[in-house]
Amino acid sequence: MADQDEDFAAMFAESEHAGPRAKKRPRVGDQITGKVISVGKDAVFVDVGGKAEGQLERGEISDADGKLLVKLGDTVEARVVGDTGGVLTLRVKLGRGPEARAELQQAQELGIPVEGLVTEVVKGGVAVDVAGVRGFCPASQIDVRFVDDLAVYVGQRLTFRITRYEPRNLVLSRRALLEEENAKRATETRKKLEPGAVLRGKVVGFKPFGAFVDLGGIEGMLHVSELGYARVDKPEDVLSLGQEVDVAVLKIEPAAKGDKTERISLSLKALATDPWRDAAATLVEGARVRGKITRLSQFGAFVELSPGVEGLVHISELGTGRRINHPKEVVSVGQEVEAAVLSVDLERRRIGLSIAASGGGSADDVAAVARAHPPTKFGTFADLLKKS
Q: Staple 108 to which of 79, 84, 162, 342, CB 3.0 to 4.6 Å?
């Protein structure tokens, strides 16, 4: 009978600790979230779950004037730095002087984040004041992306993880914390990530071929061709670092060898109004239009009639009255020109223009020119070989 009683007691104890809703007592080094249940003269008490109570010194959660920043019922985040078996000791920031040095040692051992003020740019990184102790954060550890100008961080109060702490040698990393935070945010972002989804993101970097957008712990690529219907040479011409934008998800590809995350293709163009819809109502054969030459090729000049809508003036329609070898002999990029519409193919998004037919004459005259100059057709490479 005694054996049975002991077995029952053991099973009961096990169920108490292993139940699905059981919450373990926080340990030293754990980051906790708890509710303020009592405010005393010197300390604030927090319910941290797991049948445990934490204690925060008032100075930890007071402003420079000593005004308490929390009240009963508020939720606070803190780190467990001590456990006497009764009340847990909590911290949200470090002290100063000898006390700070002891806490820095503990912060490194337990992986506790620390707050520091970036004071100056030094060789290879930045100097950081952490509770009166001078520390160093390498340039590669200040952010998850390469930062060209470290001076932008000077004067900022940031959170770091201590990677090395020895007398006169405090080495910090902000990148480690950012990567951990991004991993948590990415979990939530992936729940919404699918082709066709529209997400809010922040522009975090540029390359000649496009912009990187942080969607929430995951970055996507906004190719220069997807910035809009208008022709864009550089993404910096239409976007700026830190700008928030709504983007459509075009495609998601599995992570390639050597990549940490999947490849996500984004688009601003997919959310914009197609300018060709308006062009369809106004561009007809015989119409006179004005535009700016955007680029030149061997066979003609491209003219932007409105953002996202370009027409082609074939080299034979440049109105010189003489044979030329290249459009650059008579026109230049950026030049404003007047032209006549020879042909419109909305399905293929092609507009044939003529500068030769734009001067003088009535609309009927221009239409006659259009009939006499059908749209130029370019053969295949095989056709050119046959002719040669």
A: 162
Predicted pLDDT of residue 100 = 67
**CB-based contacts of 177, cutoff 8 Å, min separation 6:** 113, 159, 160, 161
Look at phi and psi of residue 30 and say left if phi exceeds 0, alpha if psi is from -120 to 50, else beta: beta
CA distance 227 to 235: 8
The helix, strand and coil proportions of the chain, stated in percent and rounded to the nearest 5, come to 25, 40, 35
Bridging pattern class, strands 43-49 and 31-39: antiparallel
Contact assessment for residue 43 and residue 53, using Cβ atoms and an 8 Å cutoff: no
Bridge partners (DSSP) of residue 352 are 312, 343
Give percent above pLDDT 90 in the chain: 32
Structure confidence by residue, pLDDT tens digits, 119-154 = 999 999 999 999 888 999 999 999 988 888 999 999
Assess contact for 300 and 358: CB atoms under 8 A.
Answer: no
367, amino acid identity: A
Residue 257: other Cβ atoms inside 10 A: 4
* Residue 303 bridge partners (DSSP): 293, 311
In this predicted structure, what is the pLDDT of residue 95?
54
Within 8 A by CB and 6+ apart from 24, the residues are 50
Q: How many CA atoms lie within 13 A of 382 on its CB side?
A: 0
Query: How many whole angstroms separate alpha carbon 316 and alpha carbon 270?
Result: 36
Torsion angles phi and psi, residue 59, rounded to 5: -60, -25
**Helix (H) or strand (E) run with residue 351 in it:** strand 350-354
Domains of the chain, start order: 28-91 (2.40.50.140), 113-178 (2.40.50.140), 192-271 (2.40.50.140), 275-374 (2.40.50.140)
- Nearest Cα neighbor of 138 from 115, 164, 106 is 164
Least confident span in 8-12, 144-148, 205-209, 351-355: 8-12
> At 322, phi and psi to the nearest 5?
-145, 165
Residues linked to residue 219 through DSSP beta bridges, in sequence order: 214
Residue 115 has pLDDT above 70, yes or no: yes
